[in-house]
Amino acid sequence: MQDKLILAYSGGLDTSVMVPWIRERYGYDIVTFTVDLGQGDDLEKIRKKALTTGASDAVVVNATNMFVDHFVFPALMAGAVYESKYPLATALGRPLIAKLMVDTARKYGAKAVAHGCTGKGNDQVRFDVTFQTLAPDLKIVAPVREWNMSRPEALAYAAKHNIHVEATVESPFSIDQNIWGRSCEAGILEDPWIEPPAEAFAWTTDPALAPNEPEYIEIEFAHGIPIALNGVKTDGAPLIDKLNRLAGKHGIGRIDHVENRLVGIKSRELYEAPAGVVLHEAHRELETICLSKQAVRFKTLVAQEYADLIYNGLWFSAFHQDLFSFIASNQRFVSGHVRVKLFKGKATVVGRKSEHSLYSHNLATYDKGSDYDQDAAQGFIKIHGLGQQTQARQQLLKGGAGFNLPGLPSTRSE
Prior knowledge:
Blueprint: E1 4-8, H1 13-26, E2 29-36, H2 43-53, E3 57-62, H3 64-78, H4 89-108, E4 112-114, H5 123-134, E5 139-141, H6 143-147, H7 151-160, E6 174-178, E7 181-185, E8 215-222, E9 225-229, E10 232-233, H8 236-249, E11 254-260, E12 266-272, H9 274-290, H10 293-311, H11 318-330, E13 336-343, E14 346-353, H12 361-364, H13 375-384, H14 386-396
Parallel strand pairs: 1-2, 1-4, 2-3, 4-5
Antiparallel strand pairs: 6-7, 7-12, 8-9, 8-13, 9-10, 11-12, 13-14
Helix pairs in contact: 1-7, 3-4, 4-5, 8-9, 10-11
């Protein structure tokens, strides 16, 4: 009896060719695994193609709600944006896919798992580390890292094995998407000086062609999680889907990012994340009135660690559990409403309110009747600056030493 292998399967050229290639090279009985994370693929069509390609069975799963509730929203609560630009759509999807593949491997008694990642990207790390963490006994097969086939060679291999592929001309871009975002790379985008062409975008309108009138929306959060859009209580996935369309119509969510990959190279990536951009902006603004100064400052450090952890494929780590314990506590009072203006490629928060708000109008107002005691300011300032004043008298001003201004390299033309 042949050992079984679970193959992450998209139905594209590479993963379709992998079915006979793995069978010939390693002798495994192939079970393909396809998961819908809201990208809108025809799962039944993919399942049938896998079977005609030579798989003994084809598993398809819709995990969109699991993805949103247990991966996207925790990252949103954490404010996890890689290098202050990338909302981590693909990076969040990979550990879930790998986890579900491990579950499927256990169900089928499989001895191995396989994916179609290259040796230059981050996804290979996210898959491999998750497999090694959750199921170290499973062998990992990564054909694209081994075979070095060009696209024409892969097409020839597909033809030899009677594998139908819809496209015979290489796409200029490499695309990946789920409900939280769309990534686009390769082709002309590999030159960071070149402006992305219109055909690189699919979810967002060119801001120059977006509506000439702004649109206002209201998002309600509970404990850092969006729960309603424009007054209508909505589950996570449909809320994100609707917001993708609303914000995308106004050209919001385009991200052009030269990012630092884990494998040591810089890569120019194009992302579209209309809902992600709006929700992160709204969430940050709600935090400004619900969190103390110290909590906001410290959370920026945690957010960066959280983003790096996701990007680097360490979702299933004890460190992640530790960080999320802080996030869950930090977000317990981040509930309220945010009003956002959508206009010409930009989401601008124009209003925020919360029953837990730390903003006090009676303290902040300059009108009469303010609760702020201005007479206390003089003594506070004296104490606040006492250390600096003492150092100036005893060190910096002794003997006329004075203060040195920071020196900067001159950029003036002579």
